[in-house]
Amino acid sequence: AITGHICDHQCQYNCTRLDYDSALNIRELKKVALEKGWDEYRSRWHKPAGSGSRHPVAVIGAGPAGLAAGYFLARAGHPVTVFEREASAGGVVKNIIPQFRIPGELIQHDIDFVVAHGVKIEYGCDPHLSVEKLQAKGFRYVLVGTGTDKNSGVKLGGDNQNVHKSLQFLREFNRGAELNLGKRVAVVGAGNTAMDCARAALRVPGVQSATIVYRRSQQEMPAWREEYDEALLDGVDFEWLCNPEQFNADGTLVVRVMKLGEPDEKGRRRPVETDEIRTLQVDSLITAIGEQQDGEALSAMGIPLDPQGWPVVNADGETSKPNVFLIGDVQRGPSSIVSAIGNARRATDAILARENIASSYGNKVWNNVDPAKVYQRKGTIAVTLVDKNQREAFVEQEASRCLECNYVCSKCVDVCPNRANISVAVPGFQNRFQTLHLDAYCNECGNCAQFCPWQGKPYKDKITVFSLEQDFVNSTNPGFFVAGASVKVRQDDQTWQLEINDRGQFNEVPAQLDAMCRIISHIHQHQSYLLGGVEV
Predict the structure, then answer these.
(1) Which of 205, 313, 340, 452 has the highest local Cβ count within 10 Å?
(2) What's a single GO MF annotation on this record (predicted)?
(3) Which domains, and CATH codes, for the chain?
């Protein structure tokens, strides 16, 4: 329910259907899946064998990351207890994101969904619950998902006390507290939280205008475009290239006019002060220039921090304390809901691997896919699209428009002007259609990388067929060069010399080269013309 309403749907911005007409409405399909599939899922799901006998897991924080981690682990059979300091679960979605963006009953639906899988949630817990105490209680793994609940500070002169921090303001707004903001509200910052603050302020009784004040231009704002568009629709005003310096008791907000300088480390142009000063008349000011994790609370929990105050973790989110993981925003700073869920997924996958439990998520078996029909869809454009409110017709339409790029993508094959990428059907692989790169035809134009929906570089990443030994030596690509019965293979920056017979069978295959050698054998047997030399 949550991701069906407030997911930032980056998948839609990268949907391969964009090259034909428009992206699939994936986020809306999530809503339909909930509407149509929840009852059947609930009736069919059962706890896996051995549930309750596996090592117990503690999760600190019942926000999106904590709830997701609890769900993934409980579904795999681990007893999970989530410790939450608030009186209810949901974290930022429940307490911070305005309810006009997502109804409370849908948030509760997802909480109930997690609890239905056996996750236990304890409310009103000590906010400084230590990892050591939880481990002493018998929890083998501890995951910390406490979010970023501290506002970054704003240096502001003047004696006006009507200054509100964004997170506290949004909490009070969601609780229905009586707020007195006056008629004119200014919000400092231009991220997603700032957009929420401005839109929420316009819904407070008595407020007539809400203005975003940002020191950079619209192009540099960190807010997602959809958030910005919704703010515009609500009537939010914007003052670009303005940096607040002083807020006086008479309601005068003094701002420094800025100009853009050189790009910073994130690629956004730096704001540079000018000599120009402007004033705005404002009754209340809300500061929303970023959030950060509570470093003191993490230290009290026993989580090691680096000199800058950020937790030290590996790629899976595990800290230097064995079996202790950080998940969600607390690990990497404010991000999207779906990023927090994905971050939790990486940590739980690491735990399941450590427990020798296979993760079944995403292991779809392609039994009912007709490759011919999938390819046929690439040439079909929907002339008229069905409205999403016509649920049945809408779902059928979107299903028919899906190109199933996780089964066969081949966009790099389509866009290569030199035909240096080819798709080969190799039996025995989950993804039957394997993309091979032909080194001799490639001039490294980068077109395939530009269009790749997986953010890859096919001319560098894909298994490469080399026609000249010297080209193999000079390259760093994974791939192979065949010369008679000799095969040179490179994978993960290591090179092997193997022997192959005239039937395409290897004498001996290292375990790590099994997949690569199966592809080579198939090419040797069925597309041997790809192994020929080229004129130099």
Answers:
(1) 340
(2) iron-sulfur cluster binding
(3) 46-149+293-354 (3.50.50.60), 151-290 (3.50.50.60), 371-401 (no CATH), 411-531 (no CATH)
